[in-house]
């Protein structure tokens, strides 16, 4: 799948690569624009991409209005489309194949009180607060935050999808089956021919005896 396919991925106008989620959101937004004549703020609203991919031009100055969620008709229109998407009636799943390459990160959050009792005085001294703070621990906990972001693991997993049945395997199986059937056919013909010859030979050998 082309990462810059702007018909399936409206986010491509903003430099984002193709992903299954981006394609499905773009699909829902295009249906909302077609049927409700507006943009839902919960999905990408890039006017040029929407008008090009749907072939429907905006009514005024190429600006697509944001859906007014205070109007019952608009709310119902959006709700019906989202329900159709949930029931897989929009073909968004069919038209949005998985990305050929995709990077994802699992996020975990852990927290603890910081700074520790042994470190708080050093921290306050570094920022010139030790002379003016009457409650150093509480002040440090309210005034400072330590954030560390790191990879949980440096392992790399690679998933390769391959067709379960290729043309080479199909032709090989067909050739094997034909060879097997042809082999049985030849063996059967030889057996029948051998039986006929034996019957004829036996008949010729017994004919003089029968005449006596």
From TrEMBL:
Gene3D superfamilies membership: Acid-sensing ion channel domain, YojJ-like
The membrane-topology field of this record reads: Multi-pass membrane protein
Keyword Protein transport: yes or no? no
Where, per UniProt, does this protein localize?
Answer: Membrane
Gene Ontology cellular-component annotations: plasma membrane
Q: Which domain of life is it from?
A: Eukaryota
Asked if the record carries the keyword Membrane, the reply is yes
GO molecular function terms here?
ligand-gated sodium channel activity
Keywords on record: Ion channel, Ion transport, Membrane, Sodium, Sodium channel, Sodium transport, Transmembrane, Transmembrane helix, Transport
In the record, the note on similarity to other proteins reads:
Belongs to the amiloride-sensitive sodium channel (TC 1.A.6) family.
What name does UniProt use for this protein? Answer: Amiloride-sensitive sodium channel subunit beta
